[in-house]
Amino acid sequence: MADILEEVLKRVRPTEADQKRIERVASELIRRTKAACAKLKANAKPMLVGSAARGTWLRTERDIDIFILFPEGLPREELERQGLAVAREVAGPKGRERFAEHPYVMMKFEGFEVDLVPCYDVAKPSEIRSAVDRTPHHQRYVKERLTPELADEVLLVKKFMDGIKVYGAELQVRGFSGYLCELLTLRHGSFQKLVGAVSQWKPGVIIDLERSYADESEPKVLFEGQPLIVIDPVDPNRNVGAAVSMQNFAVFVRACQEFIRAPSLRFFFPRRVKLLNAGGVRRILKRRGTKLFCVAFRSPDVVPDVLYPQLRKTERTLVTRLAQSGFEVLRSDVWADFRAVIVLELSVARLPRVRTRVGPPITLEAEGFIREHLGSKETLAGPFVDAAGRVVFELEREQTDARRVLEQALAERAAFGKHVAEAIGRGHEIFEGAKLAKLLRDRKFREFISEYLAPCLPWYR
Amino acid sequence: MADILEEVLKRVRPTEADQKRIERVASELIRRTKAACAKLKANAKPMLVGSAARGTWLRTERDIDIFILFPEGLPREELERQGLAVAREVAGPKGRERFAEHPYVMMKFEGFEVDLVPCYDVAKPSEIRSAVDRTPHHQRYVKERLTPELADEVLLVKKFMDGIKVYGAELQVRGFSGYLCELLTLRHGSFQKLVGAVSQWKPGVIIDLERSYADESEPKVLFEGQPLIVIDPVDPNRNVGAAVSMQNFAVFVRACQEFIRAPSLRFFFPRRVKLLNAGGVRRILKRRGTKLFCVAFRSPDVVPDVLYPQLRKTERTLVTRLAQSGFEVLRSDVWADFRAVIVLELSVARLPRVRTRVGPPITLEAEGFIREHLGSKETLAGPFVDAAGRVVFELEREQTDARRVLEQALAERAAFGKHVAEAIGRGHEIFEGAKLAKLLRDRKFREFISEYLAPCLPWYR
Questions:
Q1: Comparing C-alpha atoms, which of B199, B146, B155, B200 is closest to residue B8?
Q2: Distances (CA, A) of A52 to A143, A152, B87
Q3: CATH of the domain at B32
Q4: Per-residue pLDDT, B279
């Protein structure tokens, strides 16, 4: 075990040269931001936050987050105006504006991806105006507690999360943020102790570092239904684990259980998904014998955190529509890059015309039910009584072909999410079965569909 | 309402000539049985029982039941030997031996179907040795209470049961016996009052004419799960309604509810089922779009009361086998005459190769489940974790073709019932879809399948 962890650290811990380089770049960015504030007469000060500021970044990561802190009294529009002006001044023409909860500027700088984020410098995190205002407090909280030894443990935790594919709180991933990894490490003191604790986790587990609540009853209600509840030490009203889906929660717990049983580098460095070509896709589809539909369209121009929830909503809507029409969806998934794809895999794509409509049990009145269907155009047979004593009709199924159900739902676009509905409205294609080969030229989609067709927990690959 | 009932009686009440004729034939049979007893020195006396003896037979019925009562002391083998000898003497060479709970002789005589049944003349019905020993007691109980006016009401009840196809306690029908119709009439006093009461029946209703039980708690336990509980006035340990299936119970209740709403001769004299020819069968099957399988074989040489339960058991076994293999059976039925047929109607006859095997939830250990399937020959994909946090594998389905599942089950013949298993073992055919047309030359099967393909409560036809 110790050997494995040592080996992992050797591979992921930034070298001294890496460290020097990021410090130099970050200092330069801070210097430029201060200069921009002075030049534009903005009463603000820059702050380096995130893993770069805490020495908890993985060697492969290239992110620098600079927050620009404005005084609390400033009106919101002023903050946005001045903040963006400062950020633009720093970024120059290469900067690109982005909108999350409020606007910020992204730039590439000496090989790093830099976010310049204006925020309020609030005294109490309970009085924040926007989620980004919490970040400086997170920075201070972690920085004060994180020894260099603990920073190494954080690296192990992050790389483990990365290896088992649950790292990242963005809505595409619905996993564990860097800050969450740091809090979990602080709570348990080491990667190994954390893994031991997690292997016993049940959904609804509560971690409250600062004992913000007298007992667990209050957070249990406050964050009901969320599998992982990690009370934010700087703001007890927030669950730092809110983004973690039940699926990723379970993957993390299973991974910890199995890592204890058989520690392996595979958890940190899983094998890559074997990329399928058109022939491979055809072979697997034939072997599975299912009916696969890929609904493809050009992604709407919104950030992934807006797009993915809408894609999943659309996916759910389509699954429900198909189920209501009698078609069992075996599995489904969504993916997006320049193009967006919703994958729906059905057991069968054609159903018989007849469907059974079961009426009230013998203990209830059936007159209305019988009158509704007797002699109706869609009635094929009935009324008769089944073995359980219920009145039954056999009706014509409206749609016996799954593709037609899908087409109809895509034409109506009800409960799809605004941007996805619009994008699908502008044009879409349905690729049936092996016809999805046409999409394989997109390497990222190829990765996605290769994984979809051979789903497997990463450490078992 | 009164007009309708009057019209029904006009059609079903035996004429005076009918009545004279049956009395003459019954007397002749009694006379012959007495003579046979004398000739064979059997210490027994004949008794006319059943609807012929009570004046509650429908004009179309042609049954005469003569019971031959032996003293209680006689050993069972002697009763069977002497009883059969007497019956054979009466019937002559035209008589045919039959075996129910014990042997009896059936004969055709002057247009009537005559049963000659040896039994014990027991003093207390609670001390019977065989179910037939109860019959003389039933005869006396009903005869003592049934006025000519009530006999007319019984005719209405019986014809109603006949019209809605729930008349007969034989296991092929699982409906209401003549004796049960008589008891229900005695209990409620008239057809109309009975119909009113039945329209309020719930499964588990208890009718206890002689108040044999202090309250309903005891019979509720004794006859648990039986929808209709009618305590036998001559033997409180017996439920006269035991044969009534939930299906027929519900049909009777629905018929009464609807007869009250809209009285009609249709309940007593429903339209005939429209007989389908091969073209009609093909048209309906095409419209339904289902996959119909008819398993046909020569009926084993046993009475219907033995055959039908075995056929239904076989039907259930096949439905379960198909369901376990993932095939949904929409509807199924059995039929028998010279030939026996089990009909199974499926939504789809082919399934994808892949099937989902869901493992334990996140709160339970999954090691055993994972070890069982990891790298196994039948594993197509997995382990992965689903949205609910459960570990999942995708496995190969053993059989993707419903016909092959059926063939395999018919080859094994486990849980089929002895005689049916043997008969199927001697040879069987599976007719798929419209190929069942080959069976249509059998007019009775044609009636059955015509009704199967357009099931409808008789009064709605």
A1: B155
A2: 11, 14, 106
A3: 3.30.460.10
A4: 96
Q: Are residues B425 and B450 in the same domain?
A: yes
CB contact under 8 A, A330 and B354: yes
Flag if A249 and B362 touch (Cβ within 8 Å): yes
Specify the pLDDT at position B33. Answer: 96
Q: DSSP state, A37?
A: H
The per-residue pLDDT for A395 is 96
And the tokens for B269? 């004299």
Nearest residue in B to A453, CA atom: B381
Whether residue B427 sits in one domain with residue B365: no
Flag whether pLDDT at A100 surpasses 90.
no
Q: What is the DSSP letter of B327?
A: P
Sign of CA dihedral A419, A422, A424, A427: negative
Residue that is written with structure tokens 């005939």 in the block: B272
Q: Which chain B residue has the Cα nearest residue A374?
A: B460
Find the residue in A nearest to B368 (Cα).
A258
Q: Are A361 and A342 contained in the same domain?
A: no
Confidence check: pLDDT of B125 > 80? yes
d(CA A23, CA A131): 26
Task: Say if strands B205-207 and B228-232 run parallel, antiparallel, or are unpaired.
Answer: parallel
Please judge whether A381 and B455 are an interchain contact, meaning their C-beta atoms are less than 8 angstroms apart: yes
Mean of the pLDDT values across residues B190-199? 97
Q: Judge if A445 and A297 occupy the same domain.
A: yes
Enclosing domain of residue B375: 354-396
DSSP B50: S
Q: What is the pTM of this model?
A: 0.85
Predicted confidence band at B362 (pLDDT cuts at 50, 70, 90)? confident
Q: Which of B165, B266, B384, B453 to mutate to test the interface with A (most CBs of A within 10 A)?
A: B384
Whether residue A336 is found in the same domain as residue A416: yes
Peptide bond into A383 cis (omega under 30): yes
Q: Do A246 and B387 touch (CB under 8 A)?
A: yes
Candidates A313, A354, A386, A450, partner chain B, best to mutate (most B CBs within 10 A): A354
The nearest CA of chain B is from the CA of A212 a distance in Å of 27
Q: In terms of pLDDT, which residue wins out, B365 or A35?
A: A35
Cβ within 8 Å, pair B247-A353: no
Q: Which of B243, B267, B291 is the last residue of a domain?
A: B267
Average pLDDT value for residue range A355-381: 91
Find the CB nearest A362 among B253, B287, B394: B253
Q: Can you say how many angstroms the Cα of residue A253 is from the centroid of all Cα atoms in its chain?
A: 18
Place of tokens 């709605």: B460
> pLDDT tens across B214-224, in order?
999 999 999 99
- The verdict on B95 and B113 lying in the same domain is yes
Residues of B in contact with A254 (CB under 8 A): 362, 366, 385, 391
Chain B residues with CB-CB distance to A247 below 8 A? 385-389
In a domain, B272, yes or no: no
Beta carbons of B384 and A457 less than 8 Å apart:
yes
Regarding whether A331 and A222 lie in a shared domain, the answer is no
* Residues A214-229, mean pLDDT to the nearest whole number: 94
Q: What is the mean pLDDT of residues A76-93?
A: 92
| pLDDT at residue B185 in the model | 97
Closest in B202, B382, B386 to A456, CB measured: B382
Give the C-alpha separation, A154 to A215, whole Å: 28
What is the pLDDT at residue A274? 93
Q: Residue B384's pLDDT is what?
A: 96
Which of B200, B385, B390 to substitute to test the interface with A, most A CBs within 10 Å? B385
- Total count of residues recorded for chain A: 461
How far is the CA of A48 from the CAs of A29, A54, A257, B459, in angstroms? Answer: 9, 9, 36, 83
User: Into how many domains does chain A fold?
Assistant: 4
Q: What is the pLDDT of residues A291-321, one digit of tens each?
A: 999 999 999 999 898 999 999 999 999 999 9
Q: How far is CA A228 from the centre of its chain?
A: 15
Q: Is the pLDDT of residue A363 over 90?
A: no
